[in-house]
Design a protein that fits this description.
12 strands, SH3 type barrels, Elongation Factor Tu (Ef-tu), domain 3, 2 domains
Length: 175
């Protein structure tokens, strides 16, 4: 499985028992969706390796207590400490309306209600306090804050996001 075909679920944070159980921190708003997984991909040396789950249960909201097949001791668990957990993109629940996954809007056209077509979404920068749409218009990169009030509609059929940005925000890049 290629990493590009997967999404990051979380990482193995710590050992839980002498029998090799681990606690995985889940990077999700709804950890309960992932309680009954049969398997996950664990990133080991930059390769995704399938691991089968014997048992799992939620632990203190954001953690999943996992017992993997063939991990039977603390020593076995040491080998996967800190490793990322991944699932295929097909395992993501479908979002509707104006909710979207960052990866699904790459390549969408960004259209401002006032300015029309302002470019193509090439990525999302979520390294700052406020996530930003990265939009490319010719050689110009436009950054637009991902604020619910700015997002009028996510049009999946036409691969377009319609925005209503305040005057001056996008104009600054285009002048």
């Amino acid at each position: 499985m290629r990493k590009e075909d997967c999404f990051y679920l979380g990482k193995i944070a710590k050992k839980f028992s002498y029998k090799g159980e681990v606690l995985a921190w889940l990077d999700t708003d709804e950890p309960g969706l992932y309680e009954d997984l049969e398997s996950v991909f664990v990133e080991i040396n930059k390769h995704l390796v399938p691991f089968f789950i014997v048992t799992s249960s939620l632990h203190k909201n954001d953690f999943l207590r996992i017992r993997f097949e063939d991990i039977n001791s603390e020593e076995d668990a040491d080998g996967i400490m800190g490793c990322g957990l991944y699932l295929p993109l097909s395992a993501l629940p479908k979002l509707e309306g104006n909710r979207f996954y960052f990866h699904e809007i790459i390549g969408f056209t960004a259209e401002d209600q006032r300015l029309g077509d302002i470019g193509v979404i090439t990525g999302v920068n979520d390294n700052s306090a406020q996530a930003l749409f990265e939009i490319k218009k010719g050689d110009t990169e436009i950054l637009v804050p991902m604020i619910d009030d700015f997002i009028v509609k996510v049009d999946r059929d036409n691969k377009k996001i319609i925005l209503n940005t305040p005057e001056g925000l996008v104009d600054l890049y285009l002048s």
